[in-house]
Each structure stands twice: as structure tokens, then as C-alpha cells.
Design brief:
The protein is built from five helices and 15 strands. By secondary structure, it is mainly beta.
């Protein structure tokens, strides 16, 4: 059984035993290897049971920084100083204006300088971008899609490298922004995600031009949130699932798996065997990327609703293809409502 595959057994013991925590040192290891950007870390299971794992936001390398071939360090510094970073006060002449939907339709295989006007910020990793820390910003064009079908191709991730993240400090959830990034289907290391990339070689920005409160697509089931849907249709769409359960392991930075609550109640331990892969609740887009849990540690908690951005999490691995994990990312603890 793969770490995140849906268990073949229909039921488990009434309460799950303590979760297996793995890869606690992943973030430090990634930084030690010089990785400037990262996608999330591996989750393990214990005898097929959903288990928590640290959500470090570790990312596979995307950005080597601005370089000038054959130049001295002084020359490289001069080149950086001479470059005028865009501010998004207006669209650069070199960029092409596109809606998020247009960008999905283009689906470029190499970075394409793209101007997206009037998109709404639905989530920011850690609650806000900080200088020197790689930052993920989720953008959505429609305030209230109403259904998964209506929300298809209406959301996209803007990924700012650690070196470029300072240009996104101050952005907040619900900001309406004009944004500049380099759109392409990022395919390094087994990844397959359409995104807007910003780094020292691919400059970009986002400027607040208004506000708005995006509403989640309601009535979403865990089985709707598949890898194929994320990569090809939905992207990071704001969604809401209802009447699901999970076991919080007591670690504020760790994810934990979710399942559809059966009629027997939240403590029965049943999983939805029809779901193609496990969906977890992640703290990565909460302030400081930590839960402030309104739920108990250990036993299963039943959630009336969970609102968050649908997301994908990958971990660097030694050899082979990194596994891909499905996540729901709440933005504040108000997004997580216990029944």
C-alpha cells in the first residue's frame, strides 16, 4: 500500500492509536541542501491508518537566483542593483495580459510573462509573506463560482522564491490584486502544476487594487478532491467540505487525514473507501503555519465544515519520484468548525 492510498479495509478500531510522525527534520535538511523553495513533506501511515506529518512547506528547487555568466560577485551585485524590479503599478510592456482561465487554456510549457488583473487572494502560506521565506499565494478570479464546474480553471498558485518574497510582503487574504508572474506548467522532479513563478530570474509582483471576500464552493466531497482534478481542472480552488472527521495528533504543525463521517458517528473509525486517495487537513496557510486547535488531541473529532483552498503537497526524496499528497488549507481557525 502506498503511504497515501485509500485503505482497502472498510473500518478501523474505534479510535486510532497515536499517529506516526515522520520527517521532523525535513525543513532543516532542505535548507542545508540549499533548496530555496519547497513543496510539502511526506506523510506516513501506521497499518493503513491516516497519520499526521509535519507540514514544513519544504519545496523542490525552483530558483538558483540571478546570475551573470563569467562575472565577478561585484558585477553580479551591480547587475542586480541596475535591474528595476516591477511594482505592478502598471503592466510591463513585455508581459501579456491574461485571465486565470486564459492561462489554463494556454498551458505554457516554458515560463511566459503573464499579467493577471483583478484576481482575489484566497490564501497565503503562513498567513502572510515574509522576506527571505518562499511564499505561496493562491489567486482566484471568481468571488463565488457556485460549483466545482463553474470554478474550473479559475484559480492558480503564485509561487515567490525566498529571494523574491520580499516583493509580496503586505498582501492579505481577500485583497484584490493586479499580479505579474511567469506562467508555465512546472514539470521538474515529477511535478505537474500550472503556476505563476516569481524568482530572481523571473521577476514579478502583486499590488492591491481593492478587496473582496471569495466564497467557497460548498457541497464538495473528499472524493471530488483528486490529483487529476487538482492538476488538470480545479487547481487551488476555495472549497468547503461538510461532516468529515479526523484525528489531531497534538502537533500544531502537522497535518492529519480526513474521512467522511459515517452515520455511526465521528469515533467509528470508518473511512470512505471510495475516495481515490487520502485528503489531509494542513496548517500550512494558517498564521505561523500552526493549528490553534479547537479540537481534542487523540480521539477522532467530527467537523461540521472545513473551508480551505484545495492544494497539493510534494516532498523532496532521494531518488525516484516524489509522492503527491492532497490537502485542504484553511486560512484561519474560523475556517475549521467542530460539530
Amino acid at each position: 500500500m502506498s503511504p497515501r492510498s485509500t485503505p482497502s479495509l472498510r473500518s478501523f478500531p474505534r479510535f486510532f492509536p497515536g499517529p506516526t510522525l515522520a520527517l521532523l527534520g525535513l525543513a532543516a535538511a532542505a535548507q542545508a541542501c540549499g533548496s530555496e523553495e519547497s513543496l510539502p513533506a511526506t506523510q506516513t501511515t501506521d497499518a493503513g491508518k491516516p497519520a499526521s506529518r509535519p507540514d514544513t512547506g519544504a519545496i523542490l528547487p525552483l530558483d538558483a537566483g540571478l546570475t551573470v555568466d563569467g562575472a565577478s560577485e561585484d558585477a553580479k551585485s551591480d547587475a542586480r542593483d541596475a535591474f528595476l524590479w516591477p511594482t505592478c503599478e502598471s503592466m510591463p510592456a513585455s508581459a501579456t495580459p491574461r485571465t486565470i482561465s486564459d492561462t489554463w487554456a494556454l498551458n505554457p510549457t516554458t515560463p511566459n510573462e503573464t499579467w493577471v488583473a483583478g484576481a482575489y487572494v484566497t490564501a497565503i502560506s503562513g498567513g502572510a509573506c515574509s522576506a527571505g521565506v518562499a511564499c505561496q499565494i493562491y489567486l482566484q478570479s471568481d468571488l463565488a463560482p457556485g460549483s466545482l464546474a463553474a470554478g474550473a480553471h479559475e484559480a492558480i498558485k503564485l509561487f515567490a522564491s525566498a529571494a523574491a518574497a520580499s516583493h509580496f510582503v503586505g498582501l492579505k487574504v481577500n485583497d484584490r490584486v493586479d499580479a505579474l508572474g511567469w506562467a508555465w506548467r512546472y514539470n521538474v522532479g515529477g511535478q505537474n502544476e500550472l503556476l505563476l513563478q516569481v524568482n530572481m530570474n523571473l521577476p514579478g509582483c502583486a499590488r492591491k487594487v481593492g478587496t473582496g471576500t471569495p466564497l467557497p464552493v460548498t457541497g464538495v466531497r473528499l472524493s471530488d478532491l483528486t490529483l487529476i482534478a487538482y492538476e488538470n481542472t480545479l487547481g487551488p480552488l476555495l472549497v468547503q467540505v461538510s461532516d468529515v472527521s479526523g484525528v489531531y495528533g497534538g502537533v500544531a504543525t502537522a497535518t492529519f487525514g480526513l474521512w467522511n463521517t459515517p452515520d455511526a458517528g465521528p469515533d467509528s473509525g470508518f473511512l470512505d473507501a471510495g475516495a481515490p486517495s487520502l485528503v489531509s487537513l494542513s496548517p500550512y496557510f494558517l498564521p505561523a503555519s500552526k493549528f490553534a486547535p479547537p479540537f481534542a488531541t487523540g480521539g477522532a473529532t467530527r467537523f461540521a465544515t472545513i473551508t480551505g483552498v484545495f492544494g497539493l503537497f510534494m516532498a523532496p526524496v532521494d531518488g525516484g519520484t516524489a509522492p503527491k499528497f492532497l490537502e485542504i488549507y484553511p486560512r484561519t481557525m474560523a475556517d475549521v468548525v467542530v460539530r
